[in-house]
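[audit] Reproducing an earlier prediction to check determinism. Same input, same settings, fresh worker. If the tokens differ from the archived copy the diff job will pick it up downstream; this log only records the rerun itself.
[audit] input (459 residues):
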Amino acid sequence: MKTQAYFNTGEGDSLQPIDIGHRDYACVVSADTAFWALVRKDRLAGARNVSSLLNAYRMKAKSFAGEIHALRFKLKPSAVYFNPTDRCNLNCSYCYIPESLRKSGTHMSTAKLLKALQTLKNYFKSSLPREQKPQIIFHGAEPLLNKQAVFTAIDWYKKDFRFGVQTNGTLLDDDALEFLTSRGISIGLSLDGHTDIIADRLRRNWNAEGVSRKVTEIIRRLKGYHNYSVICTVTRENMSSQAKIVELFHHMEVPICMLNPVRCTLPGGYKQKPSDEEAAAHYMSALDRAYELYRKTGRKLIVANFANILISILAPTARRLMCDISPCGAGRCFFAVSSKGDIFPCSEFIGVKKFRGGNIFREDIRAVLKTAPFKTVTERRIEDIVPCSRCAIRHFCGAPCPAEAWTINGRMASRGAFCRFYEEQVRYAFRLIADNKEDAYLWDGWDKGTLTTFNSRGK
């Protein structure tokens, strides 16, 4: 209790000790600035050690606060999740897009798609530095149902954008694969299990037929192509086999995967939500297995959603995904465009009309970003959420996802669906750092361009 009182002194600087489950180390964190230090447990209660650490932190506290503020409030959009069609040839039970849209929604015409991209080009030209090329991710629904329009747009604007395609893979024939890989387009696939039986339980076409064999074949054909990734959506059906899916991905030489907890923005997703504790236990086992395979073969399988948590601790401003910060990236670092040209803060909101901010063919993008639907998301601050406002790791988590918070609880000032799951990820990440294992979980060169401003492991 004396240590706790010493670290947290009313209106003064605050460092909060947390137990990370490590045999030798604990961690102290400044929740306001995302500063942290590892301290040996046998030195944690020493007044001299505490005083030295606190004094060192105070010298840097202002710069730390400035960095985290800029990350949270000063970034500009640099990416767009673009749905060129509402339709999908699959009927995955946890999809966040309403079934009516996926069944009978509209395609955006080639002419309109080209017009929309010209509008985006003009917007980014005025908002981003000349050397920064914005990103367009054709998303869905299933973008390759509108393949001609998408491929025409990629070739038309290849000098202006970095393109990606998030697809279920079932429409990737020889011509489509050649087109995408020859142009270096980022490809995202989905596979939810290491066996057909598991993978096909939730990802099926409208005839209730699984598609995992087709996707597995595409992954085999992409071997050696480094600009692709595979998402495994974690549900009650497959959470216990995450280590096995890691083994499969590693065996197939997948460069990057994501083990994403199912989004709970629609009832189908919420019904498949595993408990935080069970999901976390199996998730950590999968991360352990990824490390074991790396040690055995020297080849990494990057689990991108965990790598982002790890980066948020090691180098907050170097993180690549913006879901795990408050406000999140929705409407702030990226936004989404539907097949009708409607603009939403994020793809997760496309099925929620309340969050439509405007239309790319009728309204100015700058004006849309300032509308009430967007501000509802971009002004969601973790300091306004209980109990997150008191949480030591709030800037490594961000209380995601605002779409979940809204659809589950009916308000933004509430947590998303996986609070304890994120907490256990952070503890796990700190244990890796204490054991000097972090590089095994991160892409090569992750620290290029970063600068160490403080280094203390309390050895």
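[audit] rerun output stored. Observation attached for the diff report: The CA atoms of residues 87 and 102 lie 4 Å apart.
[audit] end
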